[in-house]
Amino acid sequence: MKVLVPVKRVVDYNVKVRVKSDGTGV
Q1: Beta-carbon contacts of residue 26 (< 8 Å; ≥ 6 apart)
Q2: Closest CA to 15 of 26, 1, 3, 4
Q3: What pTM was computed for the model?
């Protein structure tokens, strides 16, 4: 289960970057 932690962090990071590029803030 420890492997899922960094994976989730990467997903969250990608989502944040995507939101910033879109500028929607959602």
Answers
A1: 19
A2: 26
A3: 0.45
Q: Give the per-residue pLDDT at 25.
A: 54
- C-alpha 7/C-alpha 14 separation (Å) is 11
Q: Are 21 and 13 in contact (CB under 8 A)?
A: no
- DSSP states of 1-26: -TTHHHHHHHHHHHHHHHHHHHT---
Give me the pLDDT at residue 17, please: 80
Contacts of 19 (CB under 8 A, 6+ apart): 25, 26
